[in-house]
Amino acid sequence: MSKDGQLLVVALGGNAIQKPGERGTAEEQRSNIMTACRHLASLMERGYRLVLTHGNGPQVGSILLQNESARDLVPPMPLDVCGAQSQGLIGYMFQQSLSQALRERGIHTPVVTVVTQVRVSAEDPDFLDPSKPIGPFYEEEEAQVLVREKGLVVKEDAGRGWRRVVPSPDPIGIVERGPIRQLVDGGSVVIASGGGGVPVVEGPGGEMEGIEAVIDKDLAGECLARDVDADGFMILTDVEGVAVDYGTPMQRFLDRMTASEAGAYDAEGHFREGSMGPKVRAGIRFVRSGPGRWAIIAGLDHAEEAVMGGAGTRLEAD
Prior knowledge:
Layout: E1 7-12, H1 26-45, E2 49-54, H2 57-69, H3 79-104, E3 111-114, E4 117-119, E5 132-138, H4 140-150, E6 154-156, E7 162-166, E8 173-174, H5 177-185, E9 189-192, E10 198-202, E11 208-210, H6 217-227, E12 232-237, E13 242-244, E14 252-254, E15 256-258, H7 259-267, H8 276-287, E16 294-299, H9 303-307, E17 313-316
Helix pairs in contact: 1-3, 2-3, 6-8, 7-8
């Protein structure tokens, strides 16, 4: 695979920013992001151009908790504003860290963050049945208090506890597509659509209005990858790749799938919602969106190996 000059959109999971068991201090997050950025810098050293996107689950959850704790002192902000805030703070850390990692390799490419709005439909069915968990885990009794006293929607999350859930509408398009493409074409590394972007709906006069929702970051990343006309789409996470029969004695990791094979495995229920399911669906969408496009799902620590075909799961069109 020729790599020189290829444009790669990289979607970074939460393990690139905050690891399980950490408190989420600025120092912890900076350290994790620096590690991730050294992997990204190695990709650029190999000749790839990059656009980055990232998750924001723990960070926006912390912002919501801070909102709640200080609501008697300062007005709490709505979810769309909190999402924008998390884009800024994470983007700031990535800008500094990636610039440093590139300088260590003698690369002086500008790195810039774009606080990104992502259009969704107000008629999306997920607004009727919210599905996206956000914020901390609660015991069932605590969760029911949130339902009674605050009118929140809560659901049990994969045996790990109860969490608030909000709508997770399908992304339609990146509002800032034009400026992002101009920055990429001008030679910058762009960090965009963080946390899935700020979900907005379009009014009758073309005005954008934020809405209480969280877009899946991998599906929004795929939308971003199409909008910037990327060659490849890489999702870096905390597992080595895509597995069928995950968590059972029959578990088997796959090094390659066609879009049809991946869709069939998904229909059979191999990929969980809120975990591998959206990642695989995002990969399928991207490879089907244009000729020659490819997607990879791999562990963060094996990013360089994955683009060379030695790690992760590669998705290609049929």
